[in-house]
Amino acid sequence: MLNVDLHCHSSISDGVLAPAALAARAKVNGVDIWALTDHDEVGGIAEARAAAAALGLRYVAGVEISVTWAGETVHIVGLHIDETNSALVNGLAATRSGREQRAREIAQQLALAGIPDAFEGALKFADNPDLISRTHFARYIIELGICNNVSEVFSKYLIEGKPGFVPHRWATLRQAVTWIRDAGGIAVVAHPGRYKFSDLAFDEFMNEFKQYGGAAMEVMTGSHTVDQYDYYARIANRYGLMASRGSDFHGPAESRVDLGALPPLPDTVIPVWHDWLP
Ligand code: AMP
Ligand code: MN
Ligand code: MN
Ligand code: MN
Questions:
Q1: Which CATH number fits domain 4-96+169-246: 1.20.1050.10, 3.40.50.1950, 3.20.20.140, 1.10.580.10?
Q2: How far is the C-alpha of 228 from the C-alpha of 236, rounded, in Å?
Q3: Binding site membership of 135 for ligand 1 (Cβ less than 6 Å)
């Protein structure tokens, strides 16, 4: 059985490792087909592709786009994209463009909560100044000794209702799916188990995703519990979607699931990679 991992992050977005180091780790971990899916950014793809080729690792160009739907943030992964497509490139640039201002506002709010200089602090952890993420704030707050790990920082400071949360408007669902499709890619709902939608809202979200041409859903992801593996396998089949598998690996000390380490997809679903191999 193929070991396929189609979701992870490099230091081009909020991961810890450079794209080439991720490729090496995927290879060592026994991954057969690998995609790098940085947030709103394709700047790591060239390095990832070259490193994978040198290792004899099958590579798929990917991205994870931040979307606002019904006031909530959802993530849409694009796989097999042409990362030079101008609709995609321009769309991602527009999606990234609000991040610096948002980061300044997060820092102002954290200062009021007793954490000074957080903009500069987060920036220090961001290899790509174009992509300051809440994860970079989390690493700074851990460095200060205020929290012990990333999830503790999120639950105390960075999620809705906490002092450092700043609401933000990302791309629309229609835009994200359309950019991915314009670039020849497959749109995938990332970690569906993380969203706090009612059943009714989730159904509406899925119907819209399908209507715009979305084709797959992550079933095996580092964000899902064991119960959610089977639950989302059934949901994928119910909506006629292919199923994906991706660790969402961000870094050795931070991520629960390593590259290539998830259980295999249940055999009830159609893998998103079912027609990728000759
Ligand atoms: P941003 O795009 O700046 O809003 O940051 C989103 C990123 O923060 C996600 O891709 C995850 O890497 C991380 N993240 C979000 N929620 C949590 C959480 N509860 N615990 C740990 N990391 C999280
Ligand atoms: Mn992330
Ligand atoms: Mn995500
Ligand atoms: Mn991710």
A1: 3.20.20.140
A2: 12
A3: yes
